[in-house]
Structures are given as structure tokens and as C-alpha cells.
Automatic annotation (TrEMBL):
Deamido-NAD(+) binds at N454, E483, W488, C489, T490, Y491, K616. The gene is nadE. It comes from Dictyobacter formicarum. Coiled coil: none annotated. ATP binds at G368, L369, S370, G371, G372, L373, D374, S375, T478. The lineage of its organism: Bacteria, Bacillati, Chloroflexota, Ktedonobacteria, Ktedonobacterales. This is Glutamine-dependent NAD(+) synthetase.
Length: 662
């Protein structure tokens, strides 16, 4: 097992900057100094790549000055100086300049790295409908017959068919399109993405008019999502000429539709957006997206291999710059977005159950109501499904089944909730039935082992199933996605139902759904009870209580915090990250609450339970998918029930060995 140090780059993260430099039109010396200063600042922040705007070396608004041979020559010399400075700063960069070839002038973007110009990409689509009629000065890339040019003592690849592959960064392939190319009906970046480019770069000089920033932002976001790629956009700064139009220095870094960083507009000083893009994640997205992997580019591309600088080793470089990295990836951080999210999930669950009831013609259901999180959510969803179908609430038969570990708090909450919602409530204690069962199978009731616990769970499921038959209804399941992932359910007990409404909802989201219901759907007594349920410790309540009705069994003390397990689940299933990457990410977001050793221990628990419990998921009942992670064996997750976890556990062991030697 490799003992490679865990760093952002080793885990597939590429730190990038999109820069709008302060400039002076046609003052190449000044602009070059600013670009080099910006490169040094970006490198000091751990960036490996920096993107600058279109024609940034000269300024975009030089107009007829582009014809001046002095300007052209100085721009070429400045490019070589920038390449040398980028090499010294250990960063790669894309800069824009005019380039004369064969008596024609091209609007170009050049990639520099490792002290050299790696390639030059000319602009294809030249705008003709704004104040800067580019066809007056520049020729489209379509009309250039050359595929290499001579620059000082370098032979440099030239053309729109260049893809730049980082030899030392697996999966990092860069494609460049210039400004207006993105606005085309078929942007070149789409073809580049199909040919393998995961990082798309657009040096631009889009001017500002009312509403254009939102349109531009949407265009970048859509293209990044469509291409399953990172899209970097660097716009010309307000330092450009304002003879007729104004520029704002709008820079964006977007990954697969997620805006990671964006500059404030209309600043004369240099503005820089910096973020870490996950190249490994994008390659996985493409791997699992069959429509993307089946498509083929219409154009062939030349692969230009180069060495990508690995970035400066600074404390800041070790801190991941991703606004989407959250300790609760299933739960949006923004309150307004979270509310919309909860409402949408609630409707998905309710409509799923309503369709099953409508199809079967059933007007009654049974549901085990414990006063805990999961059964409460299942009840609220069931009530909503009955509302959709205009069925009487009395057809919802909630059954409380107090056992050896039932607390007065949960039992009282179950009763209060059922009463406030106007549903049918029955109480069927299970102690005597379970004791008889222990007697039948010869089990000592003083031995509180797995038999002791599971017998109670199976007795409850038997009651619910038989009562469903008795009333001609269906039994609604209450378990959630996190429990199915960890196997924290009794096979053929709470593992089973006739429709599993919470199958796609992780534990961390269940609590938010109940809190949202209390705040946005219900009021009065119902809302008060829901808030108390949300604050109740998570427990199966299967072991006897302590003194004064004290709860002695809490789930998270046994299997670990659900906030950690849901984090592990999201990145292990949704993005197929290896344990080392999940561990490193978890250390980033949970460092205030858990030590690396604790995180690693619970990560081991997650993988051991996840692999060992697949047989339960292989037989799980129907239930609605509500998010990007689902474990149904008929849909998103198909895994052998007897797959070995050895490969993943070995990597965790190697991580533990590294941790112990620190």
C-alpha cells in the first residue's frame, strides 16, 4: 500500500485562479508586470494554474493599434517573459495576445508552463455585432493553415485542436476557447470535453450591459454542467478603454454547474477568484454518465503533454477552497434552499406512496409509530399521501408497541402526534409476546444480546403486517437510507415493509424534514411535538431502561455519529472516492469536533458495516429515490452481497499506520 502523503493534489484537487488584472491599454510593459505579480500572488496561494483575460498583454480595446508592428513584437516578447516568470513561480498560466502569422492577425490564448510556451489557441468566432468589430483586425482560426509556429527558439503547437494533458496530474486535460467561442451554438468546449478535456479555460473580454452578468453566469454554469467539467472564465477589467463600452473584470470558476468562486465586478485593482476543482470527481461523473461516455467528438485533437506545477507548499494550500464542501452534503446550507429542498423531498415521498395506494386500491395503512425521527417522518408523508388521494385520515392506523426499552417521552410524543393529526392510534404492548417467544426458543431474557433485541423488532413487524391484512391495507415502512447503508435494521423486521417511504432519505436529512414540517406545514400542538421529537436522542429502545426511565441505549454511541456516516456514504457512493480521500475531506470539515483518529475509526466501521450489510439491501422493498444517492438493488446500487471489503480496509489500515507514526 502506497505511503504517499495526503495532499490536495494527490487526491485529485487542482487549485486554479481566474484573474482580472489591473491594466493600461497598449502599455505592454505595465501589463506584463501586473500579470507577473498576479502569477506570484496566485502561486503563493498554492495555485497551479491561472487564467487571464483575452488579449490581456496588450489590452482588448487597442483597436487599430493592433496593426502596429511594435505592439505585436512587444506582445511576443512579453509572452516569453511571462513564461519565464511562471516557471520561476512554479505555476502554469493562460494569457491572451495578438499574433501575426503569414500576414494575418489572430486573437490568441497561450498556455505557458515549465518556462515554455506549451501551445497557442486562436479564436474561432469573431464578434461583428458590437462596438469592437473584431473582424476588422483579426482573422478566424478557421483560416489559418499552420499547426505549428516558431517563437524565438521554440516550435510551438498552434490551432484550435490542442488539448493539454498534464503528465503529472492524472485525468487533468485542458482545453481553451476564447470569449465569443462560448456564445456559439456549438461551443468548441463541448467537443473538447468529449475528447477528454476536464478543465475548460475561457480568456474573455465580454463587455457589460444591463443584465448581461446574469446571462454570462448562467452560460458558464450551463456549459460546465453540460460538459461535466470545470469551466474557468476570466473577463477583461475596467482598465479597458471606456470610449463606448465598459468592462467589469468578471471572473468565475465553475465545476459541473456549481459556482466555486467569483470575483466582484467593477474594481480597477486586480481581482482574483481562487478555488480547488476536483478533477477526479469530474472523471468519475463522466464514467457513470452513459450518454456522455457514448458520445464521440466530431473533431480530432492533438494531445500536448506538459508538466503541471504542483503548487507552493503553504498552510493555505493545504486548506481546501470549496464552498460546496459541507459536513452535511445531503442538507443544503442555505436556509431558503434547504426549505425548498425539504418541500420537494416531502412531495416525492408522498406522491410515491400515493401512487402505490392508488394502484392497489388500498385506503388503509398500518405504521409503527415509536415517537422517533423515522416513524414520525413516515407518518407525515403518509398523511400527505392521504391528502393527495382525498382519503380519510382514520385510514392511517398507527400502532405503538411499547417494549423493554420504550421511554415515556417517545411513547407520549407518539400518542400526542397521532391525536393532533386525527389518525387512528392503537397500542399493542409486546413484552408478554416476546417473553413467550423467548420461552419457546429457550432464550434467557436476562441475556441482552442480538436475539433479545431482534426478537422485539420482528414481533413488531409481525403485528404491523398482520394488522395490515386485517384492515385490508398496506404496511408503510419507516427505516431510512442511513440505516440501510449501515445495516442498522433487523432482517425481515424493520428492514421489511410493503412500501418504504424513507428509503432515499438519510438520517441527517430526516431531522431537517421534521423541523421544516414543524416550521412550515404544521402549527400548535403538532409543531410542538415535532420539535420535541427532533430533539430526542436516536435509539432503537430495545434494551431495558435505567433508573428514572433513563435511556441506556443510544445508536450513535454504538455505530458512530450519523453526521459522519452520511458524509462517508455520500462520497463513497455518489462519487466513488477512495477511503483516503474521504478521510482527508472529513478531516477538513470535522476538525473542530473529531480527531483524525476518531474519523478513521468510524470510517472503518462504515466500510465494514456497508459491505457486510449488502444482503439486506439486496432484498429491500420498493421505495422512492429522492436524491443523488440511493441504494435500491433495482436502480442506482448493484453490489454483490458477498463482496469483500479487504481492499478498502487495507487502505484504511495504511492510513492508520501513517497516522500512528506522525
Amino acid at each position: 500500500m502506497s505511503q504517499e502523503a495526503l495532499t490536495p493534489a494527490s487526491l485529485g484537487f487542482l487549485r486554479v485562479a481566474a484573474v482580472a488584472p489591473e491594466l493600461q491599454v497598449a502599455n505592454i510593459r505595465y501589463n506584463t508586470r501586473v500579470i507577473i505579480d498576479s502569477l506570484q500572488q496566485a502561486a503563493a496561494r498554492g495555485c497551479q494554474l491561472a487564467l487571464f483575460p483575452e488579449l490581456c498583454i496588450t489590452g482588448y480595446t487597442c483597436a487599430d493599434l493592433f496593426y502596429q508592428s511594435l505592439l505585436q513584437q512587444q506582445a511576443r516578447e512579453a509572452l516569453l517573459e511571462i513564461a519565464e516568470a511562471a516557471g520561476e513561480a512554479q505555476i502554469a498560466a493562460v494569457v491572451g495576445l495578438p499574433f501575426e502569422i503569414g500576414g494575418k492577425l489572430y486573437n490568441c490564448a497561450a498556455l505557458v508552463s515549465d518556462y515554455s510556451v506549451q501551445g497557442i489557441v486562436p479564436k474561432t468566432y469573431l464578434p461583428t455585432n458590437n462596438e469592437y468589430y473584431e473582424e476588422r483586425w483579426f482573422t478566424s482560426a478557421r483560416d489559418c493553415p499552420l499547426d505549428v509556429i516558431q517563437l524565438a527558439d521554440q516550435t510551438v503547437p498552434f490551432g484550435t485542436d490542442l488539448l493539454f494533458s498534464a503528465l503529472n496530474f492524472p485525468g487533468c486535460i485542458m482545453g481553451i476557447e476564447v470569449c465569443e467561442d462560448l456564445w456559439a451554438v456549438q461551443p468548441p468546449s463541448g467537443e473538447m470535453a468529449l475528447a477528454g478535456a476536464t478543465v475548460l479555460l475561457n480568456p474573455s473580454a465580454s463587455d457589460e450591459v444591463l443584465g448581461k452578468a446574469d446571462y454570462r453566469r448562467g452560460l458558464v454554469q450551463q456549459q460546465a454542467a453540460r460538459c461535466l467539467a470545470a469551466y474557468l472564465y476570466a473577463g477583461a477589467s475596467p482598465g479597458e478603454s471606456t470610449t463606448d463600452i465598459v468592462f467589469s473584470g468578471h471572473c468565475m470558476i465553475n465545476e459541473n454547474g456549481i459556482m466555486l468562486a467569483e470575483t466582484e465586478r467593477f474594481h480597477f485593482s486586480t481581482q482574483m477568484a481562487v478555488a480547488d476543482i476536483d478533477v477526479q470527481r469530474m472523471n468519475h461523473e463522466r464514467l457513470r454518465n452513459s450518454s456522455f461516455s457514448a458520445a464521440l467528438p466530431n473533431q480530432s485533437y492533438r494531445n500536448i503533454p506538459f508538466n503541471l506545477p504542483m503548487g507552493a507548499a503553504t498552510a493555505e494550500a493545504e486548506t481546501l477552497l470549496r464552498p460546496d464542501l459541507s459536513p452535511t452534503p445531503f442538507v443544503p446550507a442555505n436556509p431558503a434552499q434547504r426549505a425548498r429542498h425539504c418541500q420537494e423531498i416531502f412531495h416525492l415521498q408522498a406522491v410515491g406512496l400515493a401512487k402505490r395506494l392508488k394502484h392497489t386500491g388500498v385506503t388503509h395503512v398500518t405504521l409503527g409509530l415509536s415517537g422517533g425521527l423515522d416513524s414520525t417522518l413516515a407518518l407525515l408523508v403518509t398523511q400527505q399521501a392521504f391528502e393527495i388521494l382525498k382519503l380519510k385520515r382514520e385510514g392511517i392506523v398507527a400502532i405503538t408497541m411499547p417494549g423493554f426499552g420504550t421511554t415515556s417521552r417517545t411513547l407520549n410524543n407518539a400518542e400526542q402526534l397521532a391525536k393532533s393529526l386525527g389518525i387512528t392510534l392503537q397500542q399493542i404492548p409486546i413484552k408478554e409476546a416476546v417473553l413467550q417467544h423467548f420461552k419457546d426458543i429457550g432464550h434467557d431474557p436476562n441475556v441482552h444480546d442480538i436475539t433479545y433485541e431482534n426478537a422485539q423488532a420482528r414481533e413488531r413487524t409481525q403485528i404491523l403486517m398482520d394488522m395490515a391484512n386485517q384492515i385490508g391495507g398496506l404496511m408503510v415502512g419507516t427505516g431510512d437510507l442511513s440505516e440501510m447503508a449501515l445495516g442498522w435494521c433487523t432482517y425481515n423486521a424493520d428492514h421489511m415493509s410493503m412500501y418504504h417511504v424513507n428509503a432515499g432519505v438519510p438520517k441527517t436529512l430526516v431531522r431537517y424534514l421534521i423541523e421544516w414540517s414543524a416550521d412550515s406545514v404544521y402549527s400548535g400542538t403538532t409543531a410542538e411535538v415535532l420539535r420535541d421529537i427532533s430533539a430526542t436522542p436516536i435509539s432503537p429502545e430495545l434494551l431495558p431502561l435505567g433508573e428514572n426511565d433513563a435511556l441506556l441505549q443510544e445508536t450513535e454511541a454504538t455505530i458512530g455519529p450519523y453526521v459522519l456516516h452520511d458524509f462517508f456514504l455520500f462520497y463513497a457512493v455518489r462519487h466513488a472516492f477512495a477511503p483516503r480521500k474521504i478521510f482527508w475531506l472529513a478531516c477538513q470539515v470535522f476538525k473542530a469536533h473529531h480527531t483524525p483518529a476518531e474519523i478513521l475509526d468510524w470510517l472503518r466501521t462504515f466500510y465494514q458495516r456497508f459491505f457486510a450489510s449488502q444482503f439486506k439491501r439486496s432484498a429491500m422493498p420498493d421505495g422512492p429515490k429522492v436524491g443523488s444517492v440511493a441504494l435500491s438493488p433495482r436502480g442506482d446500487w448493484r453490489m454483490p452481497s458477498d463482496a469483500s471489503s479487504a481492499l478498502w480496509i487495507q487502505e484504511i489500515d495504511a492510513l492508520k499506520e501513517q497516522l500512528d507514526h506522525k
